[in-house]
Amino acid sequence: MKKKVLVIGAARSGLAVARLLHKHGYQVILTDMGTVKEKEELLKGGIAVFDQGHPECLLHTDYAFVVKNPGIKYTVPIVRYFVEHEIAIYTEIEIAYRYANGFRYGAITGTNGKTTITTMLYEMLKKKGQAIVAGNIGYPLSELALRYEDEVKDVALELSNFQLLGIEQFAPTVSVVCNLAPDHLDYMPSVESYYASKMRIYENCKEDAWFLRNLDDPIVMEYAKNIPCKVIDFSLTRKDCPLHRANGKVYFEDVVLFEEKSLALKGDYNLSNAMIAACMAYRLGVSCEDIQTVIAQFQPVEHRMEYIGEKRGVKFYNDSKATNTHAVEAALHCFDKNIILLAGGHDKGISFQELSAYDKRIKLCIAFGETKDRFVNVFSHVETRETMQAALTTAIEKASEGDVILLSPACSSYDQFPNYEVRGKLFKEMVQAYLDEEDI
């Protein structure tokens, strides 16, 4: 008799993991609070579907395990029921790992910089061949496992702590927690639990795997303990560690990975991102020549300090991906003064007060959305607007030559947008429309 599994959440990753488990002989039940557009197709394929809610009957079934969309909180009633009844709850990352035995993983987590590192690593792995990118960017890992499970692939994998909470066997070849700062306190019970969840990335690793440890981040150093694999320490400021900078070059031990001046991205935080990606690629067999080619050509990822254009001496930057204060700090480091900062959005329960250290650089903060009033006491010059659109209009009206208008929200987008990409796309469209207007 087939073992039953329940998949909670019918987003793209839920659909993929349901199909993967069905392929491997499980009796799959899929449920979602919304309407499942693929319901008819799934039913014909042998997958049971309960949409527009989670009926009581789903609770009274013997499941081998449950697979949950990582964005669904453990406090949601149907999930809490299985927690209380001690049923194993996984995320699709764990299921994909079990079946795609030919995949080798460079796994990236942390608070900021994940997408840049993952994208850069993917570009390096492509030079070697047989590379894919998955997780928080690219495709759900289960979708790629369904497609390539019998093939050998190098995987650049971006992981959130939500995904790591649902692993049991997952073990990457090389991994990193790039940095840590308070985030997702609307999901996690405490900041300490958030930090600890990130460290699950290496907990199943074998001795020959690598974990890159950031000596410059005191929170990483506090939480990165009992590491079962080889530890590769790195630093921007120290030279007594395997991965370091010296004489304008980045070294892994005595191997020159790349020259600092060749990096197209600016700022120390981007240098750190590049160091991590290069070392991970080196561990996965990419040549230094190919690493250096990517370093020289790589451009910022979309919605991360993305330059849009200039008009009347005012420059516009889209940093919609900055959904916490740590990311905003990295953006503010790029400019000495005359910043018109657009910030605000969904309240994740984190403090913005540390941004007050940049008050002298901020000509004006125009705060919007759910958290708009929380910025009033952070900067000396603050105005509030209901929406990002209104904030941008005000910023353009008040800007003068030499100013920078920077969307770097410090918040997630869920009060007014489905995700940060939609927020950033709208911002770019509005800025571009302004740039295209003819001066009268």
From TrEMBL:
Source organism, top-level taxon: Bacteria
Pathway(s) where this gene product acts: Cell wall biogenesis; peptidoglycan biosynthesis
Gene Ontology terms describing biological process: cell division; cell wall organization; peptidoglycan biosynthetic process; regulation of cell shape
Pfam families in UniProt: Mur_ligase_C (PF02875), Mur_ligase_M (PF08245)
Gene: murD
Domain Mur ligase C-terminal stretches: 303-411
MF-aspect GO terms: ATP binding; UDP-N-acetylmuramoylalanine-D-glutamate ligase activity
Binding site for ATP: G110, T111, N112, G113, K114, T115, T116
Keywords, sorted A to Z: ATP-binding, Cell cycle, Cell division, Cell shape, Cell wall biogenesis/degradation, Cytoplasm, Ligase, Nucleotide-binding, Peptidoglycan synthesis
NCBIfam families from the UniProt entry: murD
Annotated family: Belongs to the MurCDEF family.
Keyword Cell cycle: yes
SUPFAM superfamilies linked: MurCD N-terminal domain (SSF51984), MurD-like peptide ligases, catalytic domain (SSF53623), MurD-like peptide ligases, peptide-binding domain (SSF53244)
Species of the source: Amedibacillus dolichus
Catalyses which reaction(s): UDP-N-acetyl-alpha-D-muramoyl-L-alanine + D-glutamate + ATP = UDP-N-acetyl-alpha-D-muramoyl-L-alanyl-D-glutamate + ADP + phosphate + H(+)
Subcellular location: Cytoplasm
Residue span, Mur ligase central domain: 108-281
Predominant place of localization: cytoplasm
Name of the protein in its database record: UDP-N-acetylmuramoylalanine--D-glutamate ligase
Record-listed E.C. numbers: 6.3.2.9
GO annotations of cellular component type: cytoplasm
Gene3D superfamilies: Mur ligase, C-terminal domain, Mur-like, catalytic domain, NAD(P)-binding Rossmann-like Domain
UniProt function note: Cell wall formation. Catalyzes the addition of glutamate to the nucleotide precursor UDP-N-acetylmuramoyl-L-alanine (UMA).
